[in-house]
């Protein structure tokens, strides 16, 4: 069994060769996409094993994803193939400020995943389960599937990390999204929202107040991404006092911001596996996120452990305040 497991919807990513409009594109190179897929690549490249749980169609897109995962060292044993539903894909127009993405995933095989997929999972040796708010939002069935997987993982003593990664258009209302996200967050050990996401879900402005909201809920560690300036970690000590750590990010030239949060999450996960303290954990997570924005691909720019170490040692830091 792998050290890490994630569940989500991997997709074929067709990237336009134009930064103006889709109509101007003359070629559409194929890559892979999906928040959880990006995290899986990041974890694997930093030298840790990871298993992917999902459902794919019995089609060329599904074959391509399986082959890519196998070639990348991602465990595909928990991927179910089905007929009658297609594997999702997306079309991306890159931008250093606001990349545009068109999804072709309605009714996809992954969106029809049901909680019984959890029944066949072997949790032996698993240390961390990573989930996001994207797969949870696809349908009520995928939300129930994620919830069932979280419950099963916790019953086996597995640490659960959660990136809310909100997609409001996938929910019937903002209120429904907030309620469902917080219900899932209360089951998790590590919650890692961006600052604006934390403000939305907690209904509070101050990062410390947001952290307290989730720590009071039972979350053990709250990690808040402070835009491109850095990040902060909050937890409670043995006396119940809040302990915080704030670490700046790195100076880089931004090419495309998609996948930065996923890279950040892979840094958190691998740092937890290696027992790094909070300062080094945030340093690593910030570094992976910063490296990711220098690449047009959602995941192909994610660093190996050696590349990450070299980047941290040679790249200037920004300034950050909480």
UniProtKB/TrEMBL annotation:
<keyword id="KW-0418">Kinase</keyword>
<dbReference type="InterPro" id="IPR011611">
    <property type="entry name" value="PfkB_dom"/>
</dbReference>
<dbReference type="Pfam" id="PF00294">
    <property type="entry name" value="PfkB"/>
</dbReference>
<dbReference type="GO" id="GO:0016301">
    <property type="term" value="F:kinase activity"/>
</dbReference>
<protein>
    <submittedName>
        <fullName>2-dehydro-3-deoxygluconokinase</fullName>
    </submittedName>
</protein>
<dbReference type="InterPro" id="IPR050306">
    <property type="entry name" value="PfkB_Carbo_kinase"/>
</dbReference>
<comment type="similarity">
    <text>Belongs to the carbohydrate kinase PfkB family.</text>
</comment>
<keyword id="KW-0808">Transferase</keyword>
<keyword id="KW-0067">ATP-binding</keyword>
<keyword id="KW-0547">Nucleotide-binding</keyword>
<feature type="domain" description="Carbohydrate kinase PfkB">
    <location>
        <begin position="1"/>
        <end position="304"/>
    </location>
</feature>
<dbReference type="InterPro" id="IPR029056">
    <property type="entry name" value="Ribokinase-like"/>
</dbReference>
<dbReference type="GO" id="GO:0005524">
    <property type="term" value="F:ATP binding"/>
</dbReference>
<dbReference type="InterPro" id="IPR002173">
    <property type="entry name" value="Carboh/pur_kinase_PfkB_CS"/>
</dbReference>
